[in-house]
Amino acid sequence: MQTELSKKLGVEHAIFGFTPFPAVAAAISRAGGFGVLGAVRYTAPDDLKRDLDWIEAHVDGRPYGLDVVMPAKKVEGVTEADVEAMIPEGHRQFVKDTLAKYGVPELAEGEAAGWRITGWMEQVARTQLDVAFDYPIKLLANALGSPPADVVERAHDQGVLVAALAGSARHARKHQQAGIDIIVAQGYEAGGHTGDIASMVLTPEVVEAVAPLPVLAAGGIGSGPQVAAALTLGAQGVWLGSIWLTTTEADLHSPALTEKLLAAGSGDTVRSRALTGKPARQLRTEWTDAWDDPNGPGTLPMPLQGLLVAEAVSRIQKYEVEPLLGTPVGQIVGRMNSERSVQAVFDDLTRGFEQSVDRINRIAGRSGQ
Amino acid sequence: MQTELSKKLGVEHAIFGFTPFPAVAAAISRAGGFGVLGAVRYTAPDDLKRDLDWIEAHVDGRPYGLDVVMPAKKVEGVTEADVEAMIPEGHRQFVKDTLAKYGVPELAEGEAAGWRITGWMEQVARTQLDVAFDYPIKLLANALGSPPADVVERAHDQGVLVAALAGSARHARKHQQAGIDIIVAQGYEAGGHTGDIASMVLTPEVVEAVAPLPVLAAGGIGSGPQVAAALTLGAQGVWLGSIWLTTTEADLHSPALTEKLLAAGSGDTVRSRALTGKPARQLRTEWTDAWDDPNGPGTLPMPLQGLLVAEAVSRIQKYEVEPLLGTPVGQIVGRMNSERSVQAVFDDLTRGFEQSVDRINRIAGRSGQ
């Protein structure tokens, strides 16, 4: 499964796997794909260094990349405390009441709330980049708009390709103007932040909008036929995130969450502002229902919502409070029905791809194939 | 472009075209596809008879079908007047106020409001079927659940295949149990009534759920690569509706609406309950915005909403009140940028399909193809 882009990056298959887990990223690259480590949770540079060392030791020399969350716009002269002060008391009370209703325990004294997206992540992302550029990464992806011009330049100076996510042709063209090398077209069905346009429509639209720039299709892809369909639509590769969450190499730190993912159908996700204030697809839970309830207080805009719920989400995850327990995941969750190794997922993708090519050749009357 | 189903129906290409316009339906069949005439607007049997006669005279002996709107559940012992009485006065006032705000003129004295979906359409659909079964139709499709058992039986007795639309694997399995022959998997991106699951995920899920029943993919398809992608996902054909709305053979009776469709991008539709009370994708207009506004009265459930807005929609269409003027259409509207003949659209689909097969063969390293 070879495209111009996969050849350029030196991978066997044009399958890109985004994951927060170093073991998954390394396994994807070892299997012949391109593993991309999500760096957003690494607030301490040493933790990132440790995990990149681990990948280096386990990737068998195969190429891999890094995904950061770097806001396109800087927020100047405003502190996190200023923004905390903008959160209405009624919303804070709603969080307290909802957690109390479900008996969610408090974090331990001094225990920090987990990951949150804020407008202040550029500094954190820059420390991540200072670490990452010491490693032979081949791709730098950004999940929030185009990265700043100096970051794109630094990447290019080091021979690193830069990718950025887009949910519309307009966004994709903005990335192109910012010197981005690869557009990840993120369809409606994808997990995490996503727009309203489904992959079947978005992929070819973005391909045409930014040609000859290569496009990766993201959203709704977790089987060989879906890989083949995305490449048929003009993508030079596929970008898969959700499908790895239930691999044996993944470590969600929550058996209950893994169970929920394995049991969920394609209709069990929702595109909700509950997590960050921007629409992000995730498991539908009583937590997202509470935020999406027209009789509730509703969500706040980014970055307020993320600040508001950060501690609550950490508590729900730590104590595995089942009705509230969720995670960003795409509609492909309906296909994640057993824990498999990354290699097994990969074999399924490549075998299914070949069978789909057989199928379309039969339909096209090219029987010799 | 041949599948088992296209062979069974005797068509050259596995492309099914749904349209309310006889001239479009006939042109699709003449071009080598399978034209399906939407019958919902034919409240007078003679009108349907006239248009089927016209198709017979213009289809060059090619096969074609009919699409009806036949509710799965009958509403017994309730009259339309009973239901009219259930509409809150505040909602009626909201319709009046909104029309007044935009200066929408009244219909002429005695002029009837146009089409509306109600729970009472079974009788109308049955009179349509009484007419249609006198013609050599090869397919009967139903847009609202499985048709009643006796209708399925009557179709089968006459050698007519029965198709039904489904937005989830669960719905598709219900159709299968009802003896339906073909499932139309209607993705989120489709025009008209549609569920929440996008085609990339829905198509293979439905294919697997009802195998070996043939599945047609609907939603987001309007170009050759999209046809190829849908067939790659396991569909035995594609079902296209929106793309024909701006063909030269279509007759929307509204140049302003045609202009709006040609100008609209893929992000200019919305899945709204404004038209019927169930989520249906349509052009986003100030009319849908008014109904979807959290500060407005909100929509009523089907069939109340359809009854409530029927006259208003007719007035908006008749007088082409631009900010309110809309129509059901899918996200593929972003690709409908010029008026073309049905044959030109068809040539684009089949040529693009062949190019996409070439492309996927190159990616798969089957260079001899």
UniProtKB/TrEMBL annotation, chains A, B:
Keywords, in A-Z order: Flavoprotein, FMN, Monooxygenase, Oxidoreductase
Annotated CDD domains: NPD_like
InterPro entries: Aldolase_TIM, NMO
One Pfam family recorded for the sequence: NMO
GO molecular function annotation: nitronate monooxygenase activity
Superkingdom, natural source: Bacteria
Name of the protein this chain belongs to: Nitronate monooxygenase family protein
PANTHER family, A to Z: 2-NITROPROPANE DIOXYGENASE (PTHR32332), MONOOXYGENASE RV1533-RELATED (PTHR32332:SF38)
Gene3D superfamilies xref list: Aldolase class I
